[in-house]
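User: quick one
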Amino acid sequence: MTTGLLLVQILNGLQFGILLFLVAAGLTLVFGVMDFINLAHGVQYMLGAYLAVTFVALTGSFVLGLILALAAALAFGLALEFLVFRHLYERDHLDQVLATFGLILLLNQGVKIIWGAAPLSVPVPEFLSGNVALIDGILYPTYRFALIGAGLAVGLLLWFVVDRTRTGMLLRAGASNAPMVSALGVDIRKLFMIVFAFGTMLAGFAGAMAAPILSVEPGMGDTVLILAFVVIVIGGIGSIRGAFVAALIVGLVDTLGRSFMNDLLRLFMSAPSARATGAALSSMLIYLLMAVVLFLRPEGLLPSRGRT
Amino acid sequence: MSEPVLILEAVRKSFGALKVTDDVSLSVAPGELHALIGPNGAGKTTLVHQISGMLKPDSGAIRFRGEDISALTPEKRARRGLARTFQITSTIASLSVLENVALGVQARAAHPLSLFRNAARDAALNRPALAALEAVGLADRAEVPAGRLSHGEKRALELAMALALEPTAILLDEPLAGVGREEGERLIELLSSLKGRYAMLLVEHDMAAVFALADKVSVLVYGRVIASGEPAAVRADAAVREAYLGEEG
Amino acid sequence: MSTAPALAETAAAPAPRRHIRLLLPILLFGLLALAPLAVSLGMPAGWLALLTRAMIFAIAALSLDLILGVGGLVSFGHAAFLGIGAYVTGIMITEGRAEALLILPVVLGICALFAAVTGAICLRTRGVTFIMITLAFGQMVYFLAQALSAYGGDDGLTLYEKSTVAGLDLFSTRTGFFYCVLAALAGCYVLVRILVASRFGRILRAARENPVRVSVTGFDVTRIRLIAYVISGMVAGIAGFFLANHTDFVSPAFMSWQRSGELIFMTVLGGVGSLHGAIIGAIAYLIAEDALSHLTEHWRVIFGPMIVLFVLFTRGGIVGMIRKLGGGGGA
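Assistant: Done. Structure below.
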């Protein structure tokens, strides 16, 4: 294992973590503020990617395609909110789980019908297609740097909105005590819709940004969704800061575990058994991490204040 | 006088900057009815929660029958003989009245979690449960789901659920709240029939009931006990009149 | 599907209702027992295989109903137990240990162990977090199975032999296997029904409605739920054993998270908390899936919205509807 390889994997881990954060941020707010479990959030990530495929191809411009994809993802999310989700806020978790599960079945299959089952891709935009030289002449794609940068910028924006604005204050208050906020005369439904729209946009943005580096295929949102759950549970429900920290931890642990677990185990065991154990262990690593965190701190690493 | 059953020693609890329980010490002797009064927001229910184990005090000790129970879970306290009722009635709405009471009987049975024996036809549960229902005058309602009882009946049911535990002490959190005059009088009669047999800590707003029932009264204001003693003495206490009774007119 | 009404009626059922509650399961099992007869009278043979598969999932849905319907715990990782049962069976058959009396204790033991360990962690949380963690643990087992390269990994494991029962070759004929599964389903149903009616079951039901009351009455709610979780996992493991023997194949897809979602839907479809509702739900689900998938390969496009509409517009599931028809309105 060289320093260069380690550095590349750390960057990969960071970039994966940033993607997870974008998906988890919206989810955690929706959980925290509305106590609403939205399994279809992962589908919105997938839709972001598919819409990017279509609009980038259509316009020939990555930026323009991205903007159009975001707008379309938002419109679709709002339509879903209007048709389905708003009828579920008052229901119990079981109903929410089932209805959003039904939506996943529909949308995963719907995507297959419209775009086909084969993986698609989006070309990396021209102006970000180069590489950046790291130490010892090791190259790292500029686009991935751009992704990390964009994610950090969104994170910063989110922190500003949640921590520094009136809407953010209501959000934080709503996350710990929704009846109180509604007693203050705030239209809780409108607040929910804003939170929801915001979360949808973030998930769509993550999907669109991931499109050039991942294969765009049906079901791609499901894996991300479950990882986002792990992130939220580790970070603490309703906590943006928690989601950020946990997303980076999960991204790094997963990426580094997959690349270095074999080498690590080779120190103790023979090559074939190290390969077998390494594969099993590295795929379970983040879940084990989650179990340990929960065992020590059932409320997560950085629970949102005022929530008990 | 014999050794108190329940002793609170310098119990403190804060929610952020708000001191909800501020250095509270009090004791309840066997068979004694100790009333805890105080204006709304004085921290009475919070104190009951700490004694029953639903909240943890920040500091201080709670002793029950000579044992420090401060660190025990609610279920362990209940099994040691500390029963409670709730300010907002808390029963299992879908279970019948008899089944609700049988929960308490079951808790102290030899095999409380037996997996296979049918519980509904279990005489070892039903007989003592029915006895407790008779004690509170609900025996004829035994088969009705608890959710369909009147408010006063639910209060009586909660009392029967507490009695079914065969407790040493009972914490009563406003057992008369929201109950009509007639049902209230019946409940007061019932409570007075229990006096002497159980140590009771009674949180109550109805002053007539408190001074009719209590052997001892403590006054809680902003989390502090400002007076404690014989009912007559407390009623005469100037500080109490000013802080609390005065308001009531 | 608010669960309270279903149980409210169970608890307070006056005598005639009680007969209806017994009638439905008896009718259900009677009809199932006659199914092979219908095949010999001309129903297509594939139909029996479908019904067998449905009964296997009914065992899993029944086990889920114990924690979800009776205990009020929305577990989204239940397919893991199905998968563990199937994999233990598949691996033991591959290793030349096909005897059911040997496999089943191992299945039960491993499922119990997994349930105890993950349950102890999951049950420290509640609500949305509980749902997410059970889902995550389910996913963990899924990835573990994918990484089992010695036993097929991602591609799954084909079995070239079926289990024997006490040396007898009961599983080799379609009808024989059908009756074995039916017997297992009936046994599990009776077992879970006895559990729900027991002292333990009463506390589990009470804790779903009012855990605080139950704990100040002297019961450790978490421990009671953990016991239910472990039992439920073990019963689902039995379903996994039969599933492996039914398909002669095990693969990670057995425990995908969609499978967990389907199990929840089966349970809710039939009517949550009523136990035989889970059986009816599983059978209805598999028949609907079979019919729709013959119609179009994109059957999920029809099925997904059906689930959404079902959640938005019905309450009480199939059993709830039967009850309304038979009893002239609920509580």
